[in-house]
Amino acid sequence: MNELPENLTIGVLAEAAGVNVETIRFYQRKGLMQEPDRPLGGIRRYGDTALARIRFIKSAQRLGFSLDEIADLLKLEDGSHCAKAREQAEHKLADVRARLVDLQRIEGALQGLVERCGTASAQVQCPLIAALQAA
Length: 135
Fold this sequence. Notes:
Number of strands: 0
Oligomer: single chain
Largest sheet: none
Shape: elongated
Structural class: mainly alpha
CATH topology of the largest domain: Multidrug-efflux Transporter Regulator, Chain: A, Domain 2
């Protein structure tokens, strides 16, 4: 990545990071990013550290981390707390595995309902709708 001078406007930063300006402002309100000082009579400027921070946040989100979890990871960003970062990743992995089990259960239930719909052509009530109403 090329070094960016600390002279990017929020709009240029947003474009470079592939997000919109409101996303950056939201991250600032959540405490995930600092808002740079505004020079007297000027506009705030951002640089490569802000861009790296946004990319970190977006990468963590793609791995399923919530913004609160990302805030916790950002507290460890100096790299000296690898065990704590690993612990958070292990918790996230356990959550993902549990969701996969739930999704497989849901898939099986939906597959059964879809198959029942295909065999219920002479019935007055749709088996899918009936099963959902009974739940």
